[in-house]
Amino acid sequence: MKSTGEHTQNARHRWRQLLALLLDMGLLLAVSMVIFYLTPDTNGTASNQWRNLWPGFFQMAVCILLFQMLLRTYDTLWRYAESREYLTLLLGMTGGTLLNLLAMRVFGQYLSRIFVCTTAGFALLAMLAVRMLYRRYREIMTRRTAKGGVYTGIIGAGEAGVSLMLEMRANPAGRFQPYCFFDDNPEKIGTRVHGLRVYGPIEALPQQISNLPVSELVVAIPALSAPRRREILDICTRTSCHVSVLPDRLEMLENGKAVSSMRTSMREVRIEDLLGRAPVQLDTARMRAFLQDKTVLVTGGGGSIGSELCRQIARCRPKRLVILDIYENGAYDVQQELVRHYGDALDLRVEIASVRDRRRLYQVFSAHRPEVVFHAAAHKHVPLMEESPTEAVKNNVFGTWNTVSACETFGVGKFVLISTDKAVNPTNVMGATKRMCEQILQSRRGVSHTEFAAVRFGNVLGSNGSVIPLFQRQIAAGR
């Protein structure tokens, strides 16, 4: 059964349809009477006699109304109408007029053909004018009731930018109030789009925006290349405006992300936007061949780098994945995420242990007998390790030595150390300890059955020890 709210909504919709229909018929009648009064006898049959108007008008109104109903013209919500809806109204009037001319030949002619065509044309103009005035009235009233969002400049006057502007206007209670566009296209610069001025080129944005009341910028060019996006964001940083980015909606759909509207899909500037290159794509086939059906252990598996390693390893269908970490909250979070995603398909174990504790480490290796070990456990905050160098040595250097010894003792086939680019000619304690870890691996070359390797990472996006989160917080603060 329908609720009271649905009944009320349906009733309003029917009244809106009836009102539009009556308004169109009233306009058609008014135009017919005016033209009939002003038009002389056009076909020599005294067709300008008033007694001929009413049957002729009735026939014309029925024909036009029939076509408008067939095309569902009155189902349109005219406050949101675009060219398609106006074209439908035009087609309805044209079809109704042609049907009326055919009926005049079949049932007899009360009015001249010139009168019918002229009336239909002027009535169509009147209907379009009323609808456009109504839409303009709604826009003005919407702006008056707006709560005064921040003035926003939209970078990109293309389809995405215009659609975003229309969504902002349709949401008067929102945060954004579109003020202008910025674009590089010389054909658009200096023109107006839906009443908003287009400024340009984008390189001149800092100078132009200093004279405008704009405090928010949105980059609305989803198909930008990475280098060009970085250039535009660099230009935006020379202003005092907060910057947002409109992502590629097609890419979001391909990645399985829901897209409700452009306005709600806007996001903050991410550090990936400033890289100027595309992210590296992993060779999943080679990874799966290396890890499939093997027992894999990840030290520091609850950390930012270790947890991502666990996610990637889980995709490769290992025989068993062992997460080892001293921080139980991080390990628990990764465990629950993988359990939700893979369920019983993944043999997942979590061991709470420190790589500093050799005895406990040996117990874990003895219980699980890993074939591949990824060693991500480490202290990696550079400033903090400068203040506590002994802790850096104990955790990074001796923790690595303990893990290497366990690998050799229990016959691990492959050991991969997650190192850092700061190990190259180290200038800080953290880098020096990681360089010592690499040297431990080098010292085992030729004397161990375990194959040792080290991978140097730079600033890993999103990792807890990276300076990138600090940059992201600065971007969010407009710095």
Your description of this structure?
51% of the residues lie in helices and 13% in strands. By secondary structure, the chain is α/β, with parallel strands linked by helices. The strands form two sheets. Strands 3-4-2-1-5-6-7 form a seven-stranded mixed β-sheet, sandwiched between helices. Strand 5, helix 7 and strand 6 (242-245) form a beta-alpha-beta unit. Helix 1 (4-38) packs antiparallel against helix 2 (53-70), helix 3 runs antiparallel to helix 4 and helix 15 runs parallel beside helix 16. The longest helix is centred in the first third of the chain and has 35 residues, at 4-38. The chain is elongated and about 115 Å long. The chain starts with a helix and ends with a helix. The model is unreliable at 42-46 and 252-260 (pLDDT under 50).
Approximately how much helix is present in the residues?
A: 40-55%
Q: What structural class do helix, strand and pairing data support?
A: alpha/beta
Q: Over the alpha carbons, how many angstroms does the gyration radius reach?
A: 36 Å
Unreliable stretches (pLDDT < 50, length at least 5) are 42-46, 252-260
By DSSP (H or I, 4+ residues per run), the number of helices equals 17
Strand content: 5-15%
Could you give the count of β-strands?
A: 13
Biggest sheet strand order reads 3-4-2-1-5-6-7
- Encode the helix/strand succession as letters: HHHHEHEEEHEHEHHEHEHEHEHEHHEHEH
**Overall pLDDT confidence:** 82
Based on Cα principal axes, name the global outline. elongated
* Largest sheet: number of strands, sense, barrel closure: 7 strands, mixed
Distance between the termini: 56 Å
